[in-house]
Amino acid sequence: MTRVAELFAGVGGFRLGLEGWDNKSATSGYSEDLNSEFEVVWSNQWEPSTKAQHASKVYEDRWGTINHSNEDIASVDVETIPDHDLLVGGFPCQDYSVATTLKNSKGLIGKKGVLWWSIHKILNEKENKPRFLFLENVDRLLKSPSGQRGRDFAIILQSLNELGYAVEWRVINAAEYGLPQRRRRVFILAYHSTSRIFNQIIESTPTEWVLNNGTIAEAFPVSVENVNNFKFFTLDNDIVQISNEFNKGTAKSLFENTGVMINGEVTTIHSIPSYDGKQTTIKDIMLSGKVDEDFYINENDLDKWSYLKGSKSHSKINSEGFEYKYSEGSMNFPDPLDKSSRTIITGEGGKSPSRFKHVIATKEGLRRLTPIELERLNMFPDNHTKLEGILDTKRAFFMGNALVVGVIEKIGISLQNKINIP
């Protein structure tokens, strides 16, 4: 059994992908056995901006309160976290810059509230370090901040390198592999030097690992336009130097959407998804028949919806008093039923007209997506987020923050297969 600690758990997307639900798999619509060897032994969910911890309440309702922490991860005593083999979590994209402590030139301090350093603290302080990490973030992590493209990701890679981990990453758009939502995220796997997978990377070449032999490549195959497009570079040993100087003043990140880092050596290339199977569409996840009246678009609001979804161009003035032209193109209104959905955002819920909310055409009229349909777009079980006291707008918010469970499941299966290689 592979013991898992889940950070920033939300309503449990990582757990559903790794354990399944009632031992059933998300990719089968929870109809077929998953036969998972993962077991979550500790979880943490804390929402700093609200007193009511709704996501944690959903998590506890689904899996119980034992070994679940609902407190700020930055204040959790690392010694209270049980030993685990795999640390997982979707951490936010923030400013990862660091400085040295005044007392100790080797000590590092990151900005307060930046959750990457909570992960780092666990890895650094755990006597029995987790052998594996499985993390998720928005894809702009690879190219932020604007003045030092890729610096933030370089800080993460070098801090993991110093802790003894090799890392592979890939930006995956779930819909490009037949899953129901066009949601693009970067997935990061790390392997400690004491693990067999670390040695498997050493025995492979970095290019072969990225294209064929790697955990992510086996779960989500890719191709490249030209193998000569691989980029190779070495990270600076001084993480503070990386923070201050990495890629300063350049317009493009050094990191492509696919890559691997081992012993500070980075290999990266732009890859293209290799998939020609079935596509899951909005029609596939729609509820049939009439839904609650609140989800239908009021005729009096149609002009507002049409305006917000349409193209527009107008002048704006920035904070410095500079006037500039702001333009945006038109969006499909309603959303096409024969394609995967657009990315769900946290503001998906509520009746007010919006450019970004989904609207579909049904026999009964134009309507927004229901909480169950939003759950299906992220491949959660129906009504996973339904709980007394939690409004539909909050359930939509959960799905805007969640991940596509099928991506986690597929990578998890590939990871477990590699763990099991003798």
Topology, please?
Elements: E1 2-7, H1 13-19, E2 38-44, H2 54-63, E3 68-69, E4 86-90, E5 98-100, E6 108-110, H3 116-125, E7 132-138, H4 151-162, E8 165-173, E9 184-192, H5 196-203, H6 206-213, H7 215-219, E10 222-223, E11 231-234, H8 239-245, E12 258-262, E13 265-269, E14 272-273, H9 282-285, H10 302-309, E15 312-317, E16 323-328, E17 359-362, E18 365-368, H11 371-377, H12 392-401, H13 405-419
Parallel strand pairs: 1-2, 1-4, 2-3, 4-7
Antiparallel strand pairs: 5-6, 7-9, 8-9, 8-12, 10-14, 11-13, 12-13, 15-16, 17-18
Structure characterization notes:
With 422 residues, the protein is an alpha+beta fold. It has two domains: 2-275 and 404-419, Vaccinia Virus protein VP39 (Rossmann fold, 3-Layer(aba) Sandwich); 287-336 and 345-401, Alpha-Beta Complex (DNA Methylase, Chain A, domain 2). It has helices at 13-19, 54-63, 116-125, 151-162, 196-203, 206-213, 215-219, 239-245, 282-285, 302-309, 371-377, 392-401, 405-419, and strands at residues 2-7, 38-44, 68-69, 86-90, 98-100, 108-110, 132-138, 165-173, 184-192, 222-223, 231-234, 258-262, 265-269, 272-273, 312-317, 323-328, 359-362, 365-368. It has a ten-stranded mixed sheet with strand order 3-2-1-4-7-9-8-12-13-11, sandwiched between helices. Helix 4 packs antiparallel against helix 8 (239-245). The longest helix is centred in the last third of the chain and has 15 residues, at 405-419. It starts with a strand and ends with a helix.
